[in-house]
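Re-run requested by the PI after the first attempt was lost when the workstation crashed. Everything re-entered from the original request form. Ligand of interest: iron/sulfur cluster.
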Amino acid sequence: MYGLGILKGLSVTWKRFWDTYIDDISWAMSGRKRYHTEEGIRHRSSKNTKGIFTVQYPEEQLIVPEEFRFIPFLVYEEQADGKKEPRCTACGICSKACPPQCIWIVRSSDSVTGKPVSTPAEFYIDMDICMNCGFCAEYCPFDAIKMDHDFDIASQGRNVYNLEKLLKPASYYAEVRPLNYNQEEEARKAKEAAKAARAAGTAAAPTA
Ligand code: SF4
Ligand code: SF4
């Protein structure tokens, strides 16, 4: 029948229109505030919210799901003496995998011998070119680069992040991506246990 598709589309719009008021009124009657409260933001960020709503950005920001990705950051381990130990080995795989080629890395070198050392001396990502694809995080063999939730990075100047700005502690990674972090930690522990078991088996094996 002609026009059936249009009627179906209009009914969706109509339902959304009324859902907006029903949701607003039910919230107002429950005595809760929909705007400018953490609870209100959580509600509007959830799948339970109905109708159409406004986000008072930048004062309000929706809570993003764990798999949301924006710009990359480098993970470092916090040492007991307060030093930052980047997981990055400056292997360069991420910069090769990056489609728009917006990653630059300079590997450290030994001050005496001049030989390369597996840690970055400099690390830059041009966030204005980054297309948020996440390939760098996918390809990194050391879980050293991860995708951040921080999307509020607009500035007047050029957004080229250096090593200092890119580095964030592993505890931050665990906070923004708890499921991913725990999975990786379990995999790492299982790998280490298997390695230790292999080493123990080799040591116990009789020599010919
Ligand atoms: S972030 Fe990962 S892939 Fe990129 S240089 Fe460092 S270790 Fe290699
Ligand atoms: S997210 Fe994609 S575009 Fe951005 S730095 Fe990583 S690989 Fe490059």
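Saved to the shared folder this time. The beta strands are 72-78, 84-86, 103-109, 116-126, 145-147, 160-161, 167-169.
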